[in-house]
Amino acid sequence: MKILRSARWRLTFLYVGVLAFILAVLGFLAYTVFSLSFYDLTDKTLSEVGTSFEITARRHFEDVQEKMTAEEALEHTAEDVSFKNYKVFVFSKTKELRWQTKTLALEPNISVDTAHKWLDRFTARREANLDGFSSDSELYRVHYHPFRIGNSDFSLIVIHPLDEQKAFLARIRNGLLLIVPVALFLTSVGGYFLARRTFLPIAEMSDKAAHINATNLYERLPIENEEDELGRMAKTFNDLLARLNRSFEQQKRFMADASHELRTPVSIVRGEAEVSLTKKDREASEYLETIEIMQKEGERMSRIIEDLFTLARADAGAKKIQKSSIFLDDVISETVRAFRTLGLRQNVSVEMDVEEDMPIEGDEHLLRRLFTNLIDNAIKHAGSQVAIRGFKEEGIYRIEVSDDGPGIPVINQPHIFERFYRVDKSRSNESRSLFGSGAGLGLSIAKWIAERHDGHLELTQSDSRGSVFTVNLPAKTKPDLL
After folding, report:
1. Can you tell me the distance from the alpha carbon of 298 to that of 352, in angstroms, rounded to the nearest whole number?
2. Taking the domains of the chain in order of start, what are their residue ranges?
């Protein structure tokens, strides 16, 4: 059914169904309790009538002055005891009728034969109370009370009509049959509107979410109450939209910046090629210069593309890196050795003070790339000296790469690990770069590599005395190398 596809209707039906079950159980229990209470009260009253008759008859019989027989005591008892609304039969031990009330106000038409049948049932079942029907099918409550006067045994049958109890129970039953459906109807109406009110924010959020796409990720779902479940759900969804929006914006900036960075070397290569083709009478030295420019720009494009590929791996969540047991001090030493020649040409000394025997589980290629990017960045911004210091502290390898350059302005420091972010070019010397692309990707890649090795990279100092970048990597206690 189409109506059952709606969560509102399903919730309403469930609510009404549970309430109907509860009301049915409570109604049944209430009716049963009232019915049993009436029976107990009636049985108690009948028992009191029988006991009162016995006590009165025994008092007459035992009265010394009267000196009555048992039969006479029964007659006098009938005169002393009121039997309004009760029919009483007294039978001898041989089940002969000895006495009975003459009338029963509500229903006197109970024959002796009917009383005999009830007496037989009592003696057979040895019960004190039972329900009995008269010849005209009227229901009565019957009580059996055996007693003894002198040497004579008697059986007392007390009968009371259940008309009042039946009428009262019928009113209770009819009331329940009326109240329960009305209560269920009112509950279903109220439950539907309550469910509708509850699901209304969800419907609004659904409509709003359906209109959100890549072009309007800045829009957010409405939140009426951040403390309830729907508010928390909307807030979580809005946080998801915010993350998606940031990812899309980063992706767009990434594509724009990548296009911009690649456009420059491509334009240079294209321009040099066009000049060489249009100018026929060029000297060999000019062609050589053109080729050198094209080679230099080609190398720059290769480095940019390699950096972009590395970042693409990072964005794709590259889970596997080729870890092996290596010595971190060897990786740093080889990297520093490659930069010393460049440093000498640029009048920058590259000094290293790294502890020996620093075993680690890591990807040698990526770790070499990490320190290559940091040292290359330090040389570009250094005045005359770059220092690499490494030591172990509390199970952590701390590698510090410092320079004596002008430092990074405070306003730029929060952004230095962002992709394609570059500080004012006047503060750096791109011509000193040997391995970097110059596109502002080096620190981003270095940070990603550190995190892939369960470590982190941070800027620990940057002022007029220079900058210090610190890499923290987990140490390995025992190397597997020979």
Report:
1. 32
2. 2-167, 229-314, 320-474
Structure confidence at residue 5 as a pLDDT band (50, 70, 90): low
Question: Above 80 in pLDDT, residue 3?
Answer: no
Pick the CATH number of 320-474 from 3.40.50.720, 3.30.565.10, 3.40.50.150, 3.40.120.10: 3.30.565.10
Contacts 24+ apart (CB under 8 A), 52-61: 52/81, 53/77, 53/81, 53/88, 53/145, 53/156, 53/158, 54/145, 54/147, 54/156, 56/80, 56/81, 57/147, 57/149, 58/147, 58/149, 61/149, 61/150
15: confidence class by pLDDT, cuts 50, 70, 90: confident
Q: What is the pTM (predicted TM-score) of this model?
A: 0.49
DSSP state of 126: T
**Taking 70 as the threshold, does the pLDDT of residue 192 lie above it?**
yes
Bridge partners of 290? none
For residues 433-448, give the mean pLDDT: 70
Token readout for 443 is: 């620190």
Architecture of domain 2-167: 2-Layer Sandwich (3.30)
Mean pLDDT of 138-151: 83
**E strand or H helix at 219:** none
Confidence grade of residue 434 (pLDDT, cut at 50, 70, 90): very low
- In the numeric block, the tokens 């009227």 are attached to 138
Question: What is the token pair recorded at 431?
Answer: 């011509």
Q: Options 1.10.287.130, 3.10.490.10, 1.10.10.970, 1.20.5.320; which CATH number does 229-314 get?
A: 1.10.287.130
482, two tokens:
């020979």
